[in-house]
Amino acid sequence: MSDLKCGATSLDKPLDAAYWEAHYCAKTTGWDLGTVAPPIKMYIAKIVDKNSRILIPGCGNSYEAEYLLKQGFTDITVIDIAPTPASILQEKYKKNAAIQIVLGDFFEHQGNYDLIIEQTFFCALPPTMRQKYVWKMHQLLADKGILAGLLFSRTFESGPPFGGNQEEYEMLFKDAFSFLEMGMTQNSIAPRANSELFFELRKNSTVFVNMYQSENIKCSTSSSDVTEKLFTIEGVLNVSRSSDFEEILIVSIAPIDSKTIKDALSNSKEN
């Protein structure tokens, strides 16, 4: 991180609606398995409550939703930022009241869900957005709601997809969620064998999870220095700074106002 500049990313173009729509129109959707990923299919089979409120972000062609419907689930919401897959799903399920298809930005979505299924959404986001992902998932889940799915346990030369490893994922979700399961899958499809982690996390409803802007903090100030100073605030449990240095995720046992954050960081600013 020390060789990055403020606000800089390694992306040549923004991963916005136009980017993903272009891939769907060109049919260059290499992430599309054409079916439900086996670990997710196995997990769905274990869900008892068919009325669970389920969200699938970055749904694409949403084979997971199709499988959920066939299993009798009654309250499914899928969301994608690209018009083409959303339009196809809206037409396909226009007479099915058990599923709602949303065209829009996940980070602007409002709702309350018992389960959110992660399948190639996290890895499609710029790594700079990972802290925001944790914050939004915590916001959307109901009390003791579950976030479950697959994450890559490998790195890529360029992305998307963007990879990572179990250690960094554990640090990212720490305290905002309770870890029910996280480990290498044994039944991934062949091209992804030995490169996927299945995880199941439960929302920690006893904490506050918030995002703060890193304004007025110089890039040359190390993230470890920033983190150390934020941990001096009473009640702070976890701190994570985005890789573009622009945002900070803080998990705490009580709300923390911006002034408290600024006061704690005052010694981190360059003169």
UniProtKB/TrEMBL annotation:
GO molecular function list: S-adenosylmethionine-dependent methyltransferase activity
Superkingdom per UniProt: Bacteria
UniProt name for this protein: Thiopurine S-methyltransferase (TPMT)
Keywords tagged on the record: Methyltransferase, Phosphoprotein, S-adenosyl-L-methionine, Transferase
Lineage of source species: Bacteria, Pseudomonadati, Bacteroidota, Flavobacteriia, Flavobacteriales
Stored CDD domains: AdoMet_MTases
Acyltransferase recorded as keyword: no
GO biological process: one example: methylation
Signal peptide segment: none
InterPro entries linked to this entry: SAM-dependent_MTases_sf (IPR029063), TPMT (IPR008854)
